[in-house]
Automatic annotation (TrEMBL):
GO CC annotation terms, alphabetical: cytosol
InterPro entries found in the cross-reference section: rRNA_ssu_MeTfrase_G, SAM-dependent_MTases_sf
Alphabetical list of HAMAP family matching this protein: 16SrRNA_methyltr_G
Claim: DNA damage is one of the keywords in the record: no
Keywords: Cytoplasm, Methyltransferase, rRNA processing, S-adenosyl-L-methionine, Transferase
Gene: rsmG
Protein name, per record: Ribosomal RNA small subunit methyltransferase G
Organism of derivation: Amycolatopsis endophytica
Length: 215
């Protein structure tokens, strides 16, 4: 599938890698059930570009943990577009984790794949903390915050790619998010002026614990 013109703007020097990732998804990704056949026609717009533009919200050179990576979104496109990032892909299902390892090896990405669930203490201990924790279509915001925020350094943030109901989720789950150490969730769009349909992202900062006063 030929890449859209905007792909060069988003991926820069990583465009060839992005195109190779699309080729892998079209072939073995469909064959192995990582994506549905109907998604092939919109791999660039709905999946790769939609994921890569999240990098607009991420500082240079930071550590990123992508929770529930599945077929590789948003983590793989982020790693391709932003090779300065230290990206870790977390995926609980063996067949998906195997696929991600193949993708990383084939595309020669400096990315780590960890099999496990973000809510498990053993996984948290193994992967450590990150400046940013990303996710896409993983769970409702309240549950997602409970999984992701423990992986975020104090003062860092989680970025959840969401759909049209993002503001409703924020209104419904803000209290639950605060309960697990999150700040006030905010909704923003990435890729404005670049993508026909910008990516909606919910940002939640991890609260900084204040030391208790003596006495």
């Amino acid at each position: 599938m030929p890449e859209p013109e905007v792909a060069g703007r988003v991926f820069g020097d990583g465009l060839d890698r992005a195109a190779e990732f699309v080729d892998m998804l079209e072939r073995s990704g469909v064959e192995r059930g990582l994506i549905g056949p109907r998604e092939v026609e919109r791999l660039w717009d709905r999946h790769l570009l939609n994921s890569a533009v999240v990098g607009e919200r991420i500082d240079a050179g930071v550590r990123v943990i992508d929770v529930g990576s599945g077929a590789g979104f948003p983590g793989v496109p982020l790693a391709i577009a932003r090779p300065d990032l230290d990206v870790v892909l977390v995926e609980p299902m063996a067949r998906r984790a195997d696929w991600l390892n193949e993708v990383v090896e084939t595309l020669e990405l400096d990315v780590t794949v960890e099999r496990g669930r973000a809510e498990e203490k053993v996984l948290r201990k193994r992967v450590g903390l990150a400046d940013v924790v990303t996710s896409r279509a993983v769970a409702p915001l309240a549950r997602l915050a409970g999984w992701c925020l423990p992986l975020v350094r104090e003062g860092g943030m989680m970025l959840a790619v969401k759909g049209a109901s993002a503001r409703d989720e924020v209104a419904r789950d803000a209290t639950a998010v605060a309960r697990v150490g999150g700040g006030v969730p905010t909704v923003s769009e990435c890729g404005v002026g670049v993508l026909e349909t910008p990516t909606t992202v919910v940002r939640v900062e991890r609260s900084v614990r204040r030391p208790r006063r003596a006495g």
